[in-house]
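Please check what follows.
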Amino acid sequence: MTKLAVMYVHGVEIADSRFAETSIALLREEFGRIAGVDPDEALSIRTAFWAPVDEDRQTALLARLGGARATRTFGLLDRLGGATDRGSVTALLGLVASGLVRSLPGNPGFHFPTLRWLIVHYLGDAITYQAGAVDRRHYDEVHRVLGEALHDLAVDAGPTAPLCVVAHSLGTVVVSDFFYDLQVAGGLYDSRSAGVPPSVAAVLDDTPAERGETLAWLYTLGSPLALWAQRHPDFGMPITVPHPALAGLHPRAGGEWINVWDPDDVIASPLRPLNDHYDKAVAEDRKVQVAPWWLGWSPLAHPFYWNDRRVMTPIATSLARAWHRMHVTER
């Protein structure tokens, strides 16, 4: 029985490998309820936790900027950030409240430590991820983490398992780049891109899943892809979802790219208006309101997408319908 493979890819401000814990529990619960199937039998789920690629450099930078006295504070902020990504409103409010602190005792010259912590994580992740013309090692290291997760899914779910990717924030950019490189290597595009670098290819076997040919569903949550698209003439070329090879492997699987965005989240935006290519590639720019009502009206909605039933129930529904199309004989 073919399982469905699910990969979670996080964005910035993550410092906890359990970042998707709440969301995975929610996806499993909703899938089981809708499909009437034990999620253990139907789903294989992995997380691509790429934050450690950045962690040492960011920790060193914050220590140099804030000094030894600030290290403990930054550790607390990391823990609050991790809890926020698992859906804790209390942790988010703690972060917001700490943002009002102008200076730390014993370090009066280091103003607004929480905001500086945010800048280092948000802008720092984006700046260091972006591949440069001279040195793209960081870009490749992040993609290697996704490659390892994809390999694990291919081993557990099977080398032809249909793949669903749920990505948040900067993670949507990482996913787009990763699968674009795979699709270039597979000959889908005539591009100057080198395709998959050797360090990433080293963790991938030559299976349909690890060539990206089973990519069926992509859910981009709170995505800044529109900002990244400015790098390219006329906003560039999106990846192809589902992959054209999927129809030959699983004719009844279906597939879709849904871009989920909250209008109050200033990081997120619709993608279909970018150009005709995005209009065809993205099935829907799904407008939602995430987070509790008293918080969801603000940009603080950004961390809450995949911990919200209004986002995860439609994803679980799509996967449940696909599972039944693939496995249940029509009467």
Summary: The beta strands are 4-9, 43-48, 163-168, 215-221, 256-261, 284-287. The longest strand covers residues 215-221.
